[in-house]
Structures are given as C-alpha cells and as structure tokens.
C-alpha cells in the first residue's frame, strides 16, 4: 500500500495519522496504539511460532539426551539442560498452542527466549572450547532465528541477541577458549546479529506502516465524506463499545446531540455550497472538543451531529457543551454574498444525556435522553444547551419520548 494514496491532512484527529506524521524510526507507538499493534503482531507470527518452537523443543530433547549420555546425569551442563533449557522451551511451546497465547506469550517470551538463547550460546561456547568449532554455525543460525522465528518484537529480539553474545563471551573466557578462536567467534556472531537486526528493523517498520495505513483505509469507510467526522455506523459501533467498557468500570457516558438551527431554511436560501461550508465549519469546531482516545464525534445525519464523552462529570460535560455552542456562534458563519449586519449567524442547539450504564439497559437510552434534551433546546428557542443527567436516565422510558414528539423546524 503506497503512502501516496493517503492524504494525512484528511485525518486531522486520527491517532494512526499522527503516528505516520511522527515517523516510525523508533518502532514504538503511543501506549494504547502499541497494545493494538502487539495484538496484530501476535496474530501474524502465530503460525511460525507454532511450527518453530516444537522443532526447537525436539532439538532440545535430542541434545539433552546426548549431553547426559556423554557426561552423566549430574554434570553441570546436563543439569542446566534438564533444569532450564527443556522446561523453558516446553513452556513456550505450551503457550504458543494454548488459549492464553494472546494474553501471555509476549511477556513470557520476552523473558524465556533470552534465557533459552543465552543457555544455548553458553553450551555452544563449551563445545567450541573442546574442538567442535562447527558449532559456531549453529549459533549464528540461532541468532538469526531469534529475530524471525521467535515471535519477538524488534527490541525484544535485540536484547535477546545481545544477551546471547554476552553469555557466549563470558563462558568462552571462563573455559579458556583460545584467543584467536574467541575473537573470530565474537566477530562472526556480532556481524550476524547486526545484519539480522538491520533486516528485521526494516521489516518491522514496514509492518508498522502497513498497520497504520490499513487502519486509515478502514477509517475512510467509517468517515463522513463531507465533514471528515466519523459516520453514523462508526458512532453506533463506538457507543456500544464504550458502553460495555463503562459498565465494566462503572463510569459515566455522555452523549451530545447537536443540531444546526434553521439549517434547512439556510440551505434553501443560500444554496448547497453555503450549506456544505457551514457543515464543515461546524464539524471542525465539534472535533476540537473531542481529543481523548475514548471520545468520538460523528455526523449523525443531515445537519445533526453526535458526540460521545467518556467518564466526565455533569458539570464538566455541561461546560464542554456550552463552550461548543458558543464557539459555533463565534464563527459568525454567513453566506459570502450576505451582509454581515443583516443576517443571523449559524448557531446550534445541543442536547446532553448523561448515563451510568446498568445491566439490562442499552446505549440507545443515552442517545434517546440526549435527543429529548435536544428537542427541549429547540422548543426553548434554539442556540442553547439542555442537559439531562443520570436521574433522568433512570426514569427514561426507552423507545418513547416523555413528551409528544413534534416535528422540528430546522
């Protein structure tokens, strides 16, 4: 996917676009997005991990048997094989095939893979010291495998390879590996690890870019083409998601329904281009009040917008709604051909519904509460905010307005 196909200016509020603008040199996103990428990464590498780790376990069993056969059961190397190498490798295989893979594999592998790799490097140093220099080829192969077959992120793989090289060097000096062989071994392992790291850095950077761009393409389908805000479908999906989260964590959800006053008359009098300009201008103002990860602004339909605010108190929500209402009026939006002193500015009416999710109720009640508040704001003269709190939500008869619904005059 080419970056040239995506104009990042079309995504002013997208966390994915923000990361692309920031660049990928550090191979780390902001915390919530990094967690999302980790989940995608684990799914991508799951097959290779499930294939490679059992092979590693079989080899570990084979070499443990050989070690015991050569040196006996109570030799230090034999004990290390049986007490550390086999259990650690077996634990990784179990995690790769278990239902706990997505939850525990990354943190556990970040500890056990360096342990296994360092043990193997130490064993190979001992073998080279007794004349089996061909074991160096096995060490270089394992160093490459750490980057591409262990399911590790770039930083984890770098730390693992560094731990292996340091472990190899420490044991090699302890067993008095000849100086020439030691230097040659260190040069080969360091170069191998460095080349593998450069390649893997480029691969992970590409994966991360594709992750961000793929998310932006998905956002395009979830955005309103005119205003750039999320569309009605994205709003419905998001409100359900945060509703479940608020129910679990016992938090409040505020829904703001925002309607441009007399917009149909404005559109009819001054044309669709003026109407579209007004919609985009109001949308920019609304988006300016929605910055936190769990908040969302959407074009709900026509000249109506909706906002979700997560975990805010009633006074805070009221303040946001009133400042938003004032900010739209302060835009002084008028058609270009109309004198600024003879025509009223574009204004909005805002209805706020604040709900504490409870079992057995749906987010549709919060939306209806905000819709009733918006209806009252229209009846009260427009260009104002009406707020309904949690006590109103408890009394709400979901699916029917408390007062008879009459058609709104735009």
Structure, described:
There is one protein chain. The protein is α+β, with helices and mostly antiparallel strands and 410 residues long. It folds into two domains: 3-220, no CATH class; 232-395, Alpha-Beta Plaits. 64% of the residues lie in helices and 8% in strands. The protein contains 13 helices and five strands. It has helices at residues 15-22, 31-71, 76-97, 101-129, 135-148, 154-174, 179-222, 232-249, 263-270, 272-288, 314-330, 363-379, 390-395; strands at 253-260, 296-301, 304-310, 348-355, 385-388. The chain has a five-stranded mixed β-sheet, sandwiched between helices. Helix 12 (363-379) links the parallel strand 4 (348-355) and strand 5 (385-388). Helix 4 packs antiparallel against helix 5 (135-148) and helix 6 (154-174) packs antiparallel against helix 7 (179-222). The relative contact order is 0.08. Residues 336-342 and 403-410 have low confidence and may be disordered.
Task: Explain the layout of strands and helices.
Blueprint lengths: L14 H8 L8 H41 L4 H22 L3 H29 L5 H14 L5 H21 L4 H44 L9 H18 L3 E8 L2 H8 L1 H17 L7 E6 L2 E7 L3 H17 L17 E8 L7 H17 L5 E4 L1 H6 L15
Parallel strand pairs: 4-5
Antiparallel strand pairs: 1-3, 1-4, 2-3
